[in-house]
Amino acid sequence: MALEQQMHAPSPAQLAPGRPHNGLGLTALGLGLLAVLTSVSVLGGLWCGAAALVLGAMSSNRIAAGEATNRAVTRVGVLLGLLGVVLSAGVLLELLLRVAQP
Description:
The protein is an all-alpha fold. It is built from 5 helices and no strands. The mean pLDDT is 87. The chain crosses the membrane at residues 28-55, 76-97. Keywords: Membrane, Transmembrane, Transmembrane helix. This is DUF4190 domain-containing protein.
């Protein structure tokens, strides 16, 4: 009986069902903003933007499951992450074109 109870321990979401878990969406927003700000350094924008996209997707899954309530924050984080990736790709393309010119 005790072993069975240990195997089926409640998840953190089950321990506090009334409290939303909005950390992933807020982190996606912060990383998305950081991605836009560091997009001129190429790597900063790509890494932070990619991380914002991944965390935004994970937050969207939590929202769909009813575990989080910050849909707008998550969407803005994903959009800023995407913008950071696009800006970084543009800067990288510009650098590659300048290097390739004789």
